[in-house]
Amino acid sequence: MPRTDTVDRGEEALPTGEAKTVRVRAMFDAIAPRYDLVNRLMTFGLDRGWRRTTVDALGLPAGSRVLDLACGTGDLGTMAAARGYRPVGADLSWGMLAANGTGEPLVQCDAAALPLADGSVDGVVCGYALRNFTDLGASLAEAGRVLRPGGRLAILEVAAPPGGLMKVGYRVWFEHAVPALGGLLSDADAYHYLPRSTAYLPDEVGLRRLLLEAGFSTVGRRLLHGGLSQLLTGTRVGLPASPPA
C-alpha cells in the first residue's frame, strides 16, 4: 500500500486529500514553462522513447479516440497523433494546459471526475501522474468508465531498479541530483517534492489490484531500461453496472 503520511528521515508529512490537490495543481502551474526541458535533462532524453513505447502499447487502429490523462505539455498526445490516433487531453493544471501546444482538444479537470461519457474513448494513456492523483483508485475507475469495452490503457510511471549498482546510482541521481537540477532550472520545492512523491505509489501487487478493481483485464507490467520506469497496460472488460435506483 502507498505511504501517504510521511517519508523516512523525518521529513515533512506528504499532503493528502484536498491539501494534496491544491499542492499538486500549484506545483505543476509553477513548473510548466520548463517542464519539458527538465524532463529531457533528468532522464538523459530516455523519456521520449519510453513515451513512444507507451503509445505503441495501445495497439489500436488509426482513428481511435485516445484520452491523454494528466496530459501536461502534450508529449504523449503529440505521439498519439503521429500514430494516427485522435487525442484529447485532460489535466488538473491550467499552467500545463496553457503550455500544451498540441492543438488537441483540452479539458481542465480532476482525474477522479472526468467530464466524458461512459465508453467514449478507445484508449487512455497517462505519463508519470499516478502518484499525483489525490484518489488513485477513483482516478483509475474513471479511466475505466470512459473507456469502451475492449479499449486499451497504457500508463508510464516511475520505478526503481531492483538492486545492485544500478539501484544505488538511481537513488543518488533521483533523490539528490534531480532536485538540484530542478532547483537550478525551475522550482526547487517542486523538484524536492518529486522524489518524495513516490511514497504515494502502491507496489506492483497494489497497482495490479487497483487496475483489476477498475475493470481491467490482462493487466501487464513491464520494466523499462532495467527498472528506471514501468509500463502498466490493461484492457477494459466492460462498463460498470448502473447503480441501483
Provide the descriptors you would attach to this structure in a database record.
disordered C terminus, 40% helix, alpha/beta, 245 residues, Rossmann fold
Which helices and strands appear, and what pairs or packs with what?
Layout: H1 17-31, H2 35-42, H3 46-56, E1 65-69, H4 75-82, E2 86-91, H5 94-98, E3 106-108, E4 121-127, H6 136-146, E5 147-158, H7 164-185, H8 188-196, H9 204-213, E6 216-224, E7 229-236
Parallel strand pairs: 1-2, 1-4, 2-3, 4-5
Antiparallel strand pairs: 5-7, 6-7
Helix pairs in contact: 3-4, 7-8
Describe this structure in words.
The chain has one domain (17-236): Rossmann fold (3-Layer(aba) Sandwich), CATH 3.40.50. Helices cover 40% and strands 20% of the residues. The chain contains nine helices and seven strands. It has a seven-stranded mixed sheet with strand order 3-2-1-4-5-7-6, sandwiched between helices. Helix 3 (46-56) crosses helix 4 (75-82) and helix 7 (164-185) packs antiparallel against helix 8. The longest helix is centred in the last third of the chain and has 22 residues, at 164-185.
Radius of gyration: 17 Å
Principal-axis shape equals globular
| The CATH fourth-level homologous superfamily | Vaccinia Virus protein VP39
CATH C-level class is: Alpha Beta
Q: What about the largest sheet?
A: 7 strands, mixed
Strand content: 15-25%
CATH topology: Rossmann fold
Cα-to-Cα separation, first versus last residue: 34 Å
Class derived from helix and strand content: alpha/beta
Q: What sequence of helices (H) and strands (E) makes up the elements?
A: HHHEHEHEEHEHHHEE
Output the number of helix runs: 9
How many beta-strand runs?
7
Number of domains: 1
Looking across the biggest beta sheet, what order are the strands in?
3-2-1-4-5-7-6
Average pLDDT value? 90
- Bin the helical content: 40-55%
CATH architecture: 3-Layer(aba) Sandwich
Enumerate the spans where pLDDT stays under 50 for 5 or more consecutive residues: 1-10, 240-245
